[in-house]
Structures are given as structure tokens and as C-alpha cells.
From TrEMBL:
Subcellular location: Cell membrane
Family of the protein in this entry: Belongs to the ABC transporter superfamily. Drug exporter-1 (DrugE1) (TC 3.A.1.105) family.
Protein name (Swiss-Prot/TrEMBL): ABC-type xenobiotic transporter
Low complexity composition-biased segments: 340-357
Domain ABC transporter, first and last residues per copy: 5-235
InterPro entries found in the cross-reference section: AAA+_ATPase, ABC_transporter-like_ATP-bd, ABC_transporter-like_CS, ABC_transporter_ATP-binding, DrrA, DrrA1/2-like_C, P-loop_NTPase
Length: 364
């Protein structure tokens, strides 16, 4: 039986741009799917199709057991949506916005008021509750929009980059609310640019690029295929590099790298903090003085670079990433200038790096 969110072969084109190029999804009931992907990957388009806001050119979607194309009205009654761009009524106060949503969902006036007050408190909007939303800051609007999506707890929720622009305290508040919702049985599709967020909340993660799902798996599986853990050591003196190298090889699970100019050695490992302690003891026993040492785990950057291709490659190859109709740009990526085109070649790289347990759709 398909899950609470199911899609098969979704295609959506805008002129020359294939925003969705054959997307399949299957999210089991009561779980969270984290959808990651660079700007322009097709995440919002997927959410809009699944929430009935946009007709796909091809493909099938079933949400909460209802065919999205055949019965969009019924689907709308079973879902909640928080969009990338806050959809609040500027001329109503925060409180009025939330009460209005409650009433749209046929809550009694009393329940709608109570729920509004509760959510305003949770998202730290109590002080601003009775001001019109047009006086709100960007982060405040975002929080109000999220609160609006949470007035009722529908069986299936969609959240498009819910925490972009939120400060750490409010991000945490949202994570808590999401965890409660899911514990209560809600199925959630969440798009995000933050692996940490997907890590905390998502049972499964799919990485989308160029309208295709290029990898899916649990957070651990994706990290493992990205290269897993590494020990990084900076030795104090250049003459110690070769001894340190020998020591690290004894612990390593693959080829390491040496950057002599900064006296830094890196080696892939398994074994976590316990192994790190052993490495330190051994280096010490061999008389190697250490300036810095640490265990490094893959970050969102690493996962993106491994799966979707490195921004720098676009430069080396004469900006081939800019060949498409749309300039693409990745958020939060070190080394990428705003507006810099990103190489589209990554899907194939990702497929080569496939690891057990992670399914990858290689481009035909
Ligand atoms: N209404 C539209 N008209 C024309 N092109 C569109 C439209 N909506 C989306 N696109 C294009 O489709 C592609 C996918 O866009 P989409 O908004 O789904 O990306 P995204 O993954 O949500 O990106 P971001 O991380 O920036 O939010 C982009 O190339 C975008 O320019
Ligand atoms: Mg988007």
C-alpha cells in the first residue's frame, strides 16, 4: 500500500526548465521525509504539485489516500501547508490571522482563540500578537505563517523550508512542535537546506537536483556515502608529518590526504571519539606534537558537494552550470559566490558513490 504521500513519475516543465523530471516519492504514514536540494532543484514545485496548487504535466500523486489530480478539494481538506513565502494577511493582527485559519477549518470561536493563544506563545509572538502583521519582521512573519499551518493538525503536512530565516530559539521551538505532531501520527514532508534539521526530524531524506531524486536514505546512510568520519590532525612541526602519517595509516580506513603547507593530515576512520583518543595517545607516544586534532563528520556542504557536484567545478569547466535557462545558486555553501553557476554534473558522481542501503537514481 502506498504511503501517506505518494508520487510516481511527476514531471513539470516551465518553458525549457524541467522543474520536475520524473519524481517518485513514498512517505510512510507517521514519518517525516526531509527533502534536500540546492536552489532551483524543484523542491517547491514538488510541494506545490502535492498540495494541489500546481498541475503536473505527467505523473501521479496520492496524498492521504486521495488522488491529487482527481480530487484536489478533498486533498486540501486533509493537508496543512507552510510555504516558503509566508502567506499571512498583512492587515490582520497575528492573533486574528490564526483565529481566521481556525474558523476556516470549522473550529468553534472559543477553540480557535485558545489555539491561537497557544501558538502565539510557542512561537514567541505573544508581545506582537495584537499588532497588524504588516509591522512584523521577516522572521516574525515566517513564525506566524508556521503557526497558521499548525492551527489544526491535519494527517499530512507540507513545510517548505520552514526554518529559513528563523533564529536558533525559534528554530528549536518549531522542531519541538514538529516532533509532537509526528508523535501524534502526522506525516510530514519538509524541505530544508539544513542537514542538521533533516537529521533531527527526518526518518528518511531524499536529495533532489535538476528535478530528479538523486539519492535517498537515512541521514546516516547519506553521511556514510559522503565519506563518513575523518580524523584531522595539524602537527606542530613539518618534520613530524611523516611519523604522523605512519600513525594515522595504522588507524585509517582508506587513503588519507596530507597538506604539507599547513601541516595537516586527514584520514577516513570508523570508531568515533574512542578511536580519536587512541590516535592522540599513539601520536603522543611517538613524540609528535599536535597543534590541533579533531574528528570531522560530514556536513550539509559535504553531502551536497558529493551528491550535487562542486560549485568550483563550474568555474574550471568554463561555467558549464550556467548553460541552463536558470541561474542556479546554492545557499550556505562555502566557496560559492552568490549567483555563481553550479555544475549540473553531480548526479552521475553521486550514482558512482552509491553505498549499501542508499538507493540512487542514476540519470539515464
Ligand atoms: N512559475 C514558474 N515559472 C517558471 N519557472 C519556474 C516557476 N516555478 C519554478 N520555476 C523553475 O523551476 C525550477 C525549480 O524551482 P523550485 O522553486 O521548485 O526550486 P526549489 O528547489 O524550491 O529552490 P529554492 O531552494 O530556491 O527554493 C527553477 O529553475 C525555477 O526557476
Ligand atoms: Mg523552494
Amino acid at each position: 500500500m502506498p504511503g501517506a504521500i505518494y508520487a510516481e513519475g511527476l514531471v513539470k516543465t516551465f518553458g525549457d526548465v524541467r522543474a520536475l523530471d520524473g519524481v517518485d516519492l513514498d512517505v510512510p504514514e507517521g514519518t517525516v521525509l526531509g527533502m534536500l536540494g540546492p536552489n532551483g532543484a524543484g523542491k517547491t514545485t514538488a510541494v506545490r504539485v502535492l498540495t494541489t496548487l500546481l498541475q503536473p504535466d505527467r505523473g501521479k500523486a496520492v496524498v492521504a489516500g486521495i488522488d491529487v489530480l482527481a480530487h484536489p478539494d478533498q486533498v486540501r481538506r486533509s493537508i496543512g501547508l507552510s510555504g516558503q513565502f509566508a502567506a499571512v494577511d498583512e492587515y490582520l493582527t497575528g492573533r486574528e490571522n490564526l483565529i481566521m485559519v481556525g474558523q476556516l477549518y470549522q473550529m468553534s470561536g472559543r477553540d480557535a482563540k485558545r489555539r491561537a493563544a497557544e501558538l502565539l506563545e510557542r512561537f514567541h509572538l505573544g508581545d506582537a500578537a495584537d499588532r497588524t502583521a504588516k509591522t512584523y519582521s521577516g522572521g516574525m512573519r515566517r513564525r506566524l505563517d508556521l503557526a497558521a499551518a499548525l492551527v489544526v493538525s491535519p494527517p499530512v503536512m507540507f513545510m517548505d523550508e520552514p526554518t529559513t530565516g528563523l533564529d536558533p530559539r525559534n528554530r528549536q521551538a518549531l522542531w519541538d512542535v514538529i516532533q509532537e505532531l509526528v508523535a501524534g501520527g502526522t506525516t510530514l514532508l519538509l524541505t530544508t537546506q539544513y542537514l542538521e534539521e533533516a537529521d533531527r526530524l527526518a526518518h528518511d531524506i531524499c536529495v533532489v537536483d535538476h528535478g530528479k531524486v538523486i539519492a535517498r536514505g537515512t541521514s546516516d546512510q547519506l553521511k556514510a556515502r559522503t565519506g563518513g568520519e575523518r580524523v584531522e590532525v595539524v602537527v606542530h612541526a613539518s618534520e613530524h608529518i611523516s611519523i604522523a602519517d605512519e600513525v594515522l595509516r595504522g588507524f585509517g580506513k582508506g587513503e588519507g590526504t596530507i597538506e604539507p603547507h599547513i601541516r595537516k593530515l586527514t584520514i577516513p576512520v570508523t570508531g568515533g571519539a574512542k578511536l580519536l583518543a587512541e590516535v592522540i595517545r599513539e601520536l603522543d607516544a611517538r613524540g609528535v606534537e599536535i597543534d590541533d586534532i579533531g574528528l570531522r563528520r560530514p556536513t550539509l556542504d559535504d553531502v551536497f558537494i558529493s551528491l550535487t557536484g562542486h560549485a568550483a567545478e563550474a568555474d574550471e569547466n568554463g561555467g558549464k552550470g550556467g548553460g541552463g535557462a536558470v541561474g542556479r545558486q546554492k545557499k550556505g555553501r562555502k566557496g560559492a559566490e552568490p549567483g555563481e553557476p553550479v555544475a549540473p554534473s553531480g548526479a552521475a558522481d553521486a550514482a558512482e558513490a552509491v553505498d549499501a542501503g542508499v538507493t540512487t537514481n542514476k540519470e539515464a
